[in-house]
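Work Package 4 report. The design task specified in the project plan requires that, given a folded chain encoded as structure tokens, an amino acid be chosen for each position. We show below one input record used in the internal validation round.
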């Protein structure tokens, strides 16, 4: 369809393959809508429709089919071929992609995507002439975390979604823009909605930038909508009313006793990394108002870095900076499962050449060439001391380093970050406008939580000293050793008195054996698309999600719950009540001192401000050398934090998705232990 006519040529030519420097002669005229071009396009379209079935009324691609558009402009109603059409057997290439190979026109878009973008050599064309087919040649699945994008790339209905076939047409659906809820980058997506329900999710295609989405983003939305509720609307409303009444009484009496200096076990509010910034601010206000309320994250964080440049992606994601960088060092990170968007960018950069990637992790397949060095943390100490040949790469122009956010959960996490500071001092990792230190987080609002405050993680000690637990956008599986502690409690091995054990989630399994605990409630809340909020992605970009779906009557969002608690607590006549909230946090004082320090240093640089003086640069280096000796180093090897892309992640929605569970079973069946063994 991209044929053109040259004035001095005897036949039409393909416009995308014409070289303007060598093929075109001076004063050559080009015709794009001549009779010869129109006739050639009609012949090409007639050849494409030669074996294509005439099943447009039942095809899933109807309304979005490129072949229909081309047939409207360049086709004709006559037919010259009355033989039997070609029949091709459908292939089973995975649990999410449905194949109808009789509709295939051999455009090879899926093959080029699998080879060039996904980096998986599974799809190909075999056979010649009339026997040409697209498939995997042998019986296997197209195993890639971004394989669902071929559904959008296929111009006809040959590759469609397996779970939603023959249901809706494009003109019956509403298209609404939103952001990705299952990844730290928060990429743009398009929702297809009908009757207040999400039917499909596909990527946001732009002219200048194509944002590929993962299979989790495309198909895990069925986990956001649990289908079975054991309680009706009236019963749930009564439970909500009783819960608010009980919590308000609890706040009143606990606040009264705490003001009389009585030691009380606190009530812990535990939130996940996907909670929006507005709800976290309200939780922060509640924890500051009442002394007996403690705010905790669902994961342990041992690092105390407060500067924004040390817990986000800085200067690596743009195409300009990727072209400038010639070296990348991965420490304990698996970008294929933890940040697929970064993995695609790194593969495209390596295909251009002059880009070396080293990894300090277990052996993993990242779809491109990576040199794995070691899994021992002591190897990083050797690099920071300059006793390894890899240290020379950091003094090259624009080096880059990617660290996993989960490393902050380790006990020796300070060793990793202080080693980065030493490397940053002696190398060009951070010079002038370039900052090559990048921290990859796999959750949507991890950076936003770190910007707000340094929250402590929920530990076993907190569980033993708690009077109740309240979960916000989190689950029991995300907290280490909590299930083990609950089982010991059920076996009467631990004497734990938990008066209120409340779990509030959008989707959660209610069948838990918690009969030994005095009270356990599951209350359905609104999911990601039934709520609006602000998030900060791993790149530090503010992402805003709007309310798209109408919340059911029995559901309440996090903002509504916290506002009800705050409004009702104001009506209570507490002792020494005041309308002011006092914030005496050490982070605020530290930030104020840091700002004053920068202000004085900018007025006049003296010998005292040695951080800004080149003459006293040796003193700064000695300080970093002295600090590294104080840090403990453990021999625990670095390992992959995510073994299963579809289920093992901070986004708990995928764990309740039937499609993700089925995809995980296929992945675990094919990924056996012998895959990591290689010879050479």
């Amino acid at each position: 369809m991209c044929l053109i006519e040259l004035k001095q040529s005897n036949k039409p030519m393909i416009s995308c393959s014409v070289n303007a420097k060598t093929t075109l002669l001076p004063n050559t005229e080009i015709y794009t809508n001549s009779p010869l071009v129109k006739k050639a396009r009609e012949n090409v379209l007639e050849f494409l429709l030669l074996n294509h079935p005439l099943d447009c009324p039942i095809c899933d691609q109807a309304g979005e089919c490129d072949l229909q558009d081309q047939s409207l402009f360049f086709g004709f109603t006559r037919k010259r071929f009355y033989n039997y059409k070609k029949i091709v057997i459908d292939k089973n290439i995975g649990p999410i992609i449905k194949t109808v190979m009789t509709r295939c026109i051999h455009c090879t878009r899926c093959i080029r995507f699998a080879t060039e973008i996904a980096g998986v050599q599974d799809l190909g064309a075999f056979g010649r002439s009339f026997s040409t087919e697209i498939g995997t040649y042998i019986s296997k699945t197209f195993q890639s975390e971004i394989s669902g994008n071929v559904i959008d790339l296929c111009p006809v209905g040959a590759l469609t979604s397996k779970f939603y076939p023959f249901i809706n047409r494009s003109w019956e659906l509403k298209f609404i823009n939103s952001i990705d809820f299952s990844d730290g980058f928060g990429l743009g997506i398009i929702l297809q909605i009908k009757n207040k329900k999400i039917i499909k999710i596909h990527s946001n295609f732009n002219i200048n930038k194509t944002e590929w989405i993962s299979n989790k983003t495309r198909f895990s939305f069925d986990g956001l909508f649990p289908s079975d509720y054991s309680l009706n609307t009236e019963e749930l409303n009564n439970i909500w009313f009783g819960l608010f009444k009980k919590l308000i009484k609890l706040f009143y009496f606990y606040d009264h006793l705490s003001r009389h200096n009585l030691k009380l076990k606190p009530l812990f509010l535990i939130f996940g990394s996907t909670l929006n910034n507005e709800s976290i601010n309200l939780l922060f206000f509640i924890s500051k108002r009442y002394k007996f309320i403690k705010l905790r994250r669902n994961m342990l964080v041992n690092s105390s870095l407060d500067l924004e440049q040390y817990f986000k992606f800085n200067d690596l994601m743009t195409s300009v900076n990727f072209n400038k960088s010639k070296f990348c060092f991965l420490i304990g990170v698996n970008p294929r499962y933890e940040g697929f968007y970064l993995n695609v960018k790194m593969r495209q950069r390596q295909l251009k050449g002059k880009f070396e990637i080293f990894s300090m992790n277990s052996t993993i397949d990242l779809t491109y060439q990576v040199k794995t060095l070691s899994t021992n943390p002591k190897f990083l100490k050797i690099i920071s001391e300059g006793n390894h040949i890899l240290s020379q790469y950091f003094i090259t122009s624009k080096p880059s380093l990617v660290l996993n956010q989960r490393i902050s959960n380790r006990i020796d996490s300070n060793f990793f970050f202080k080693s980065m500071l030493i490397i940053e001092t002696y190398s060009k990792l951070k010079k002038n406008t370039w900052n090559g230190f990048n921290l990859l987080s796999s959750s949507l609002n991890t950076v936003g939580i770190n910007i707000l405050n340094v929250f402590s993680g929920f530990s076993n000690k907190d569980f033993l000293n708690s009077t109740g637990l309240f979960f916000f956008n989190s689950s029991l599986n995300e907290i280490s050793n909590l299930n083990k502690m609950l089982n010991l409690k059920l076996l009467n091995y631990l004497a734990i008195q938990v008066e209120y054990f409340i779990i509030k989630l959008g989707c959660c399994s209610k069948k838990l054996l918690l009969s030994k605990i005095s009270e356990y409630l599951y209350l359905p809340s609104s999911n990601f698309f039934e709520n609006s909020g602000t998030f900060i992605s791993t790149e530090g970009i503010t992402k805003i999600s709007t309310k798209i779906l109408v919340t059911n009557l029995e559901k309440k969002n996090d903002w509504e719950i916290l506002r009800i608690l705050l409004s009702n607590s104001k009506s209570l006549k507490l002792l020494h009540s005041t309308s002011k909230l006092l914030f005496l946090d050490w982070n605020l004082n530290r930030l104020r001192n840091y700002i004053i320090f920068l202000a004085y240093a900018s007025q006049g640089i003296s010998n005292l401000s040695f951080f800004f003086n080149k003459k006293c640069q040796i003193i700064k280096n000695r300080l970093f050398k002295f600090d590294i000796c104080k840090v403990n180093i453990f021999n625990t090897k670095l390992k992959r934090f995510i073994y299963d892309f579809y289920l093992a992640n901070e986004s708990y929605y995928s764990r309740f998705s039937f499609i993700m569970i089925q995809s995980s079973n296929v992945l675990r069946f094919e990924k056996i232990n012998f895959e990591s063994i290689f010879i050479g």
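The first strand starts at residue 3 and ends at 6. Validation will be extended to a larger panel in the next phase.
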